[in-house]
Amino acid sequence: MLKRLAITAAACCLLFSFKGDPSKVLPPLKISANHRYFTADGKPFFWLGDTGWLLFSKMKRAEAFEYLETRRQQGFNVIQVMVVHSIKEVNAYGDSALTGKKITEPKVTPGNTFGKDDEYDYWDHIDWIISQAADKGLYVALVPVWGSVVKEAHINPAQAKAYAEFLANRYRNHSNIIWMNGGDVPGTDSLRTWQAIGNTIHQVDPAHLMTFHPRGRTQSSTWFHNEEWLNFNCFQSGHRNYAQDTSKKDLNYGEDNWRYVQADYAKTPVKPTLDAEPSYENIPYGLHDVKLPRWQANDVRRYAYWSVFAGGCGFTYGNNDVMQMHKAGEKVGSYGSKDPWTKSINAPGARQMVYLKKLMLSRPYFDRVPDQSLIAAGQGKRYDRLIATRGSKYAFIYTYNGRDMQIDASKLEGSKLKATWYDPRNGQITVIGTFNKSKLLKFNPPGEKMNGNDWVLILDAV
């Protein structure tokens, strides 16, 4: 509580004392030489995102400052946020995004003020938040307009082009911008409109990376993999469990989000890919029936490690209360959200994500590949699944339920291997020992076999 009060006090001091644009220049994200990962200033950049979808529309300055600062401290480096979530969008100060609900007429007032709360418009507020994010080393993945808005307002390609030109011109000089076209919608739904947005932004602002956020259980590569404007792929593995994933329209991968990575990894031209929306912490299975169980921290960890070890370039976390910025005193929100975001922002899964980022950056990064041949026998299905990734001198193998492992480490360098257990809950390491390299090494993780007793086996060449 004292920590939160300190953050809020700092935010209030900033609001009343700050008179200029605080934005520091972050190196724009680039695609690595092998086209699998991101770099920033030539250094490895592991995408650890959060879905702060309603940040621009629901948060006042002090709240936005607190949110960004908390996520910074927790190790996140990308915030995914909607620019226009509703055709009649109004922010927390009562400022409208559009004039007359027309996407071609953003409601912009002259100038750009970073003074008192009532001296700026909807777009100035976005500018301020983006600048604050940059000051904290955070990148912002902007969704120009949510898919439901495009359908509801019947936004055509010409209107989309005009709006995209406005956005690209306004934000191309912010170094911490990433473009996330789409918005929870299939690419075939208003295809020409999404193409207009993607092509226009890419033409006006080619310096910033762009992807497409699709509907649940689909991936951007299905429609746009060969488009010049799509620099990297992402997918939404969605919120359904195995039993609920029965739709004939989708891929029916269930909770196996690693399958989307595997599919994208095999495509040419080679492009990075990541899970940009897995099941959120504290959201009901399948979203809509609030009486069903809710996804917990161990589920979040499973989605994260499965997708990254399968070859993903990062991972985006989400929390039911935080993604909609549910506030104390509000009625029950979407999908049964009750807790305020100020509480849920410190949920266990959110605090544990940084250990994945630290692990991935602890070894040589750009030569890492998924390699399931490391698993000598019994890779397993569903919750029994083992997922492996390696460099030339190290390997990581993840188990969700603490099952026994049989490992073939012959591809690693050296004649001996140092083995350790890595705990995804707290980042602690337990040394197992040093072994002669062999085609069959057996390991038994700590604890009893049960869902959520997840571990990473680390093998380092000696």
UniProtKB/TrEMBL annotation:
Taxonomically, the superkingdom here is Bacteria
- Record bears the keyword Hydrolase: yes
Give this protein's Gene Ontology molecular function annotations.
Answer: hydrolase activity
Q: Which residues form the Putative collagen-binding domain?
A: 369-460
Apiosidase-like catalytic domain: residues covered: 32-366
| A Pfam family annotated for this UniProt entry | Collagen_bind_2
PANTHER family assigned to the protein according to its UniProt record, in alphabetical order: ENDOGLUCANASE, LMO1036 PROTEIN
Protein known as: Glycoside hydrolase family 140 protein
